[in-house]
Each structure stands twice: as C-alpha cells, then as structure tokens.
Amino acid sequence: MRSVTILGSTGSIGTQALEVVEQHSDQLRVHALVANNSVDALVEQAKKFNPAVVAIGNKAHEKELKKALKGLDIEVLAGREAIVELAGSIDADMVLTAMVGFAGLEPTISAIESGRTIALANKETLVVAGELIKQLCRQHGSLILPVDSEHSAIYQCLQGEQMNAVEKIYLTASGGPFVDLPKEALREVTPEMALKHPNWNMGPKVTIDSATMMNKGLEMIEAHHLFNVPASAIEVVVHRQSIIHSMVGYRDGSIKAQLSYPDMRHPIAYALLYPQRLEGARPLLTVEQMSHLTLEAPRRDDFPCLSLAYEALERGGTSPCTMNAANEVAVERFLQGKIRFTDIPRIIKHTMEVAPERNASSLAILAEADGQARAIAQAWYEGI
C-alpha cells in the first residue's frame, strides 16, 4: 500500500488524483490533503478519504476547517509553514505536487529534501528552479515522476532506452481554442473565450496558458530539465486531437510515441502506481479514433509566449523565474478582465527586459527574483 500526500487536492489535478486513488484503493491511500482556500471541498475530501492530516494554506480558514472536522481522527494544520513541513513528512511514500505556480516550489523542495518520490504536476517548479531541483534530487535520492501528460509520455517513451541515442523530443500541443483564429482577432479574445479548451479539462490558469501557448513554453523548459536535453532538441508541434501526447526521436531514425485519450487520470495513475500498469479510467483507443491524426507547426509569430520561453531558457539564471512570475501576474489580470489577451506576452517581454538577471543558486535568490518580476509586471499594468 503506497501512501500519498496531495498538495493542491481541491484543484483539477488533485481531484482527478483522488479519483485514481479511489479506483485503486487496494494500492493507494491518502496520507494528507492540502488546499489553499477551498474549505468546503477539502472537508468533503477529508470525510471521504480519511487522511491522517489536512492542511489549509489560508490561516483565516483554520477555525472553520477544525470545526467541520471535529470528532474525526484527522490532524488539522494551517499556514504556509505548516504546508512546507507537511510536504516533507516521512509518513508519506509519495508527494503529488499539484499546487499552481511559484507557490508550489517551496513545498516541493521540502518533499525532495526528505527523500520522497515526487509526482510532479507543478511545472513551475522546474521552470523556475530546474538546476537547483536536480541538484537536490541527486543529493537526497529523490525520484521525480512527471504528471504532465506530455512529460509522462516522454518518460514512457524513454523506458529501456539510452539517453545518448535520443536525437529529438517532439512536444505536442493542442493549439488551444485559438489555433485557427486570425492574428488580428486575438486582440478581442475574452477570458470566457479563452477558458473553453477544446480537449482538456484543466484549471483556469493552465487553460489560459494553453491559449497563449505559454503552457508549451513552460513544458519545453520542464522537459529540458527532466530529460537533460538542450532546447534545440525539443520541437513543439501542434496536434489538435490531443491523442499523441508526445514523441521521442532516436538517432537510428525511429520515433516512439505515446497515445491515449486526453484524460489526465492516465498520467496521474502512471506516476502514482509506477512502475505498475493497472486498469485505467479509459479503454484503449480504437483504430477509427487514430485514423485522422494530424501534426503541424505552431504559429510562433502570432503566439509569442512560446518564443519568450525559449529565450528565457537560453538566457538562463533567474530569467525563467522572471518570465514565469510575469506570466502569472498577466494571466491573473487577464482573467480579471483588466488587460487584453494580447497584453499577456507584452507584459512578459517587458518584465524580462527590465528585471535584473542573476545566478539561480538558492531559493532565497529565486524568491527575490520572483517578487521583483511581479512588481515590474504589476507596474506595467498600472501604467496602461
């Protein structure tokens, strides 16, 4: 029986992870559940899965959470420091990190430092602190299993292979809801339009990132760190059907691909149950479903966030951290209806040009870079 702590249990990945736990309750059990603000959902999950611990990030909800779980044998914690400490608990075999954005970095580091196996759904952890994370994993013997569908696909395609035989990674992208929208029409995109992803059921931040193609930029940086391949060997391709989740090309001319329904429960189960392959939530694809698959190049000029990610990785240091922070601010402002869809890459580009670059050698430096970038991005918005 494998015990799991889920950071971000009330979000899209967290709730689907709990579906996997429920399906494989003879293999998996929940040690701890962590949310930031969603008290009602967290209480419902706690009553159903009976974890040893629950934690809420916002301390203002602590009393409400304790009252709702009174009489149950569940420890209640609150606050960011408690979450970081809980993430490093040796009572869990695995930690699924599904907290969104920079907020997921410190708890993930805590889990790594305790030698836990990490099921990584928080791509920003590697985007912001890739070199630091890899160093800590080597130091503490922690294994990272990717949960993003694309990186899970690559991981699966690499099983039994030698990395020196890899020539190229093909990172597939759905293209988002605006894959065919003319460039001049992108300026009029609303949050409601951008949140209607054609294939995937995701949280709002990731869905907007998919629409701008920043999500694929973040995933490119994540793939660089996970698999130790240069950016020049990672090619983003648009695959509208979201059936091919990524591919790996080898020097002998062979290409391996992983195909399945666009359902996040598949990569979540692969990580949580690794190395076992047990019955999934969806059946095998039919021949008919695989008979009209397409691949095409992305419109990088119309969706500049992808190129900004390649630029940030090439510059190195704190540049990816700066880019990520600016993107988080810009996406939040767009969802609030305060900026245009096309302002998102403008804010990111401006922040990357203005923010100082440093060596990303510690969490303290990264936290400072994150804060500075957010301030610059916010100032751009306020100066409109």
- Report the sheet with the most strands, covering strand number, pairing sense and barrel closure: 7 strands, parallel
**How would you spell out the order of helices and strands?**
EHEHEHEHEHEHEHEHHHEEEHHHHH
Beta strand count:
11
Strand order of the largest sheet: 4-3-2-1-5-6-7
State the CATH class of one domain: Alpha Beta
| Helix fraction by DSSP (H/I, runs of at least 4) | 40-55%
How confident overall, as mean pLDDT?
Answer: 95
What CATH calls the topology of one domain is Rossmann fold
Counting DSSP H or I runs of 4 or more residues, the number of helices is 15
Radius of gyration, Cα only, in angstroms?
Answer: 20 Å
Q: Give the termini separation.
A: 55 Å
Percent of sequence in beta strands: 15-25%
The CATH homology group name of one domain: NAD(P)-binding Rossmann-like Domain
CATH architecture of one domain: 3-Layer(aba) Sandwich
Outline the low-pLDDT stretches.
none
SS content category = alpha/beta
Backbone shape: globular
